[in-house]
Structure formats: C-alpha cells, structure tokens
Amino acid sequence: MRRTAAKAPATRSSASRPHPVRSFVTLAAVAGMVATVAIPAFVAADRGDVAEARTLQQVSADDAQSLVVASEATPEALERGGYSATTPEEIQAKKDKEAAEAAAKAALAARLAAAASATSSSSSSSSSSSSSFSSAVPLVAPGSGLVRRPLARFDNFGTPYAGHKGTDYMDGRGEGIYAVADGTVVASSESGPGWGVYVKIAHNINGTNVTSLYAHMDWGTRRVQVGQTVSAGQLIGQVGDTGRANGTHLHLEIRVNNGYTNAESWLQANAG
After folding, report:
1. Is the pLDDT of residue 179 over 90?
2. Dmax over Cα atoms in the chain, in whole Å?
3. Residues 210-260: tens digit of each pLDDT
4. Would you say 124 and 130 are in contact if contact means Cβ atoms under 8 Å apart?
5. Cβ count within 10 A of residue 251
6. pLDDT level of residue 19 (50, 70, 90 thresholds)
7. CB contact at 8 A, 198 and 166
8. Which part of the chain is the M23ase beta-sheet core domain (predicted)?
9. Is 194 helix (H, G, I), strand (E, B) or coil?
10. Which residues, listed in sequence order, are joined to residue 203 by a DSSP beta bridge?
11. What CATH topology corresponds to 134-270?
C-alpha cells in the first residue's frame, strides 16, 4: 500500500507539464489577438495623417493666388504706348526708327516745296525778266555767251522734208528747252498752226535781227509769255510732241533779217 502512494506524485508531475501542441495554439491565439488590435490602430493612424494632409491642402487652396507654370505660359509681346515690344531696348529702337522715317518724309516734303516754288517763280508772267539758267545748262558747245544751244543734249536730227523750214532735234519728253540768246518773247501759245505749243523770241545779236522759234513743246510747259525778256540759256519750256509731230522732238527755226537759215549751221557758226 505504501509503494502505491509513493508513485502518485510522479503521475501528477507528468500531467502538469505543458503539451507542445497546446502551447503553439495558445501562442497563435495570442498573436492573433495582438494583430487584431494593432492593425486597426495603425490604419486609423495612417488615415488620420491623410485626412490631416487633405485638410491642410484644402485650407491652403482657399487663400492661394493663381500661378502660371512657366512651361504653360506663352511668350506674348507687351503693348507699350502703341509699340509692340518685349523689352525697353526694343521699344526705344522702334521709336528711333519711326522718328527717322518721319524726318526723311519731312525732308522730302521740304525739297518738293522748294522745287515747286522755283518753278512757280520762273513761270510768272508778271515779271519782266527771270533768273538765267546759262551757268547751269551743260551746253553741247560752250560758245561765246551771246548764243547758246537750245538743248543740253539730243539723240539725233530729224529727217528733213520739202517745205520744212527748221531743224528737228530728237529728244525725250520733258527735256528742257533754253533760249538761244538774250531777247524778248513775241509769241507764246498752246495751239500754234502745226507747231502745237510753241514760243518765239526776237533777238538783236551784234546789230543783227534774229528770231528763234521753238515748236512741239509739251502741254503746259511754257515758262514765258509775250513781252517778257529772257536771257541766253534761260529755260523757256520742255520737249513734247504737240502739233504735227511724229515723236517727241524740238523743231527749231532761225530767221536772220527775216530770212530762214539752217538752224544747226547757224548754231555751229555762232554758238561755238
């Protein structure tokens, strides 16, 4: 009986030792409970951060000013007082260019006004004499100063025909015609018989009576009127083709003591 009682404690000690399977299950259950509590807390904390970030962004957006991102902006010229430019230097360059153009236009207008004034002065019929162009006319031959050629230049002579009393000098429209010598205008008309627009001048050259007639001038180009005195080389009109004329040219007639003479021969003898 005593031996049996002595063995009982040994049996209790074996029963109180934890079983390996039960220990593993217990640990797994505890880990599961910890995860169940920790994960929601972590998620809640993370969601709290996001919510806080969104709230700050929304608050900042309420007072934010608009901003243009450089990559989205398009370069456009700024308007500065009507000048399209992007910098002060470009604006100044634009102003300088327009000032130069204005100055050039003003200078051109002044030159045109001066030319118109000179033309008006030379064509005035109320003046008994007008300025001489003798020194400015590039003569074909210099001459003595008493007799000048009527043209600064000409292309060639016209073809003579029966009854033709003058010499034709072929030249372009608008070329200047000059008085061959000092004298007095005795005829000036826009509608001469066959001559068209013409001027006739009486001269006294070294005691010899000479008349010169200049025909086929262009319309409205006569610079002298009847009774006006002129000087050798003075501009009296411009080449045209009025009257009975084939092409633009000057028809020049020279009469010496009321007799017709060859105009070119007379000029060669008297103008050099």
Report:
1. yes
2. 199
3. 999 999 999 999 999 999 999 999 999 999 999 999 899 999 999 999 899
4. yes
5. 24
6. low
7. no
8. 163-262
9. coil
10. 210
11. Glucose Permease (Domain IIA) (2.70.70)
**Token code pair at residue 28:** 């797994």
Tokens standing for residue 44: 């809640």
Both tokens assigned to 105: 């236009």
What are residue 87's phi and psi, to 5 degrees? -135, 160
Compute the distance between CA of residue 268 and CA of residue 51 in angstroms, rounded to an integer.
116
Looking at the chain, list the stretches that DSSP marks H as alpha helix, in order from N- to C-terminal side: 2-16, 20-62, 88-122, 263-270
Whole-number Cα distances in Å, 148 to 11, 190, 205, 257, 270: 166, 24, 12, 19, 8
pTM reported for the whole predicted model: 0.50
Query: With 0-12 CB in 10 A as exposed, 13-18 as middle and 19+ as buried, what is 125?
Result: middle
Q: Exposed/middle/buried for 126, CB within 10 Å: 0-12, 13-18, 19+? A: exposed
Distance CA 160, CA 82 (A): 67
**Distance (Å, rounded) from C-alpha 227 to C-alpha 68?**
85
Tokens (6 digits) for 249: 């040219």
SS3 78: strand
Give which of 148, 218, 156 is closest to 183, Cα–Cα: 148
**Residue with structure tokens 């996001």?**
50
Domain boundaries along the sequence of the chain: 83-121, 134-270
Residue 121: pLDDT band with limits 50, 70, 90:
very low
- Contact (CB, 8 A) for 177 and 240: no
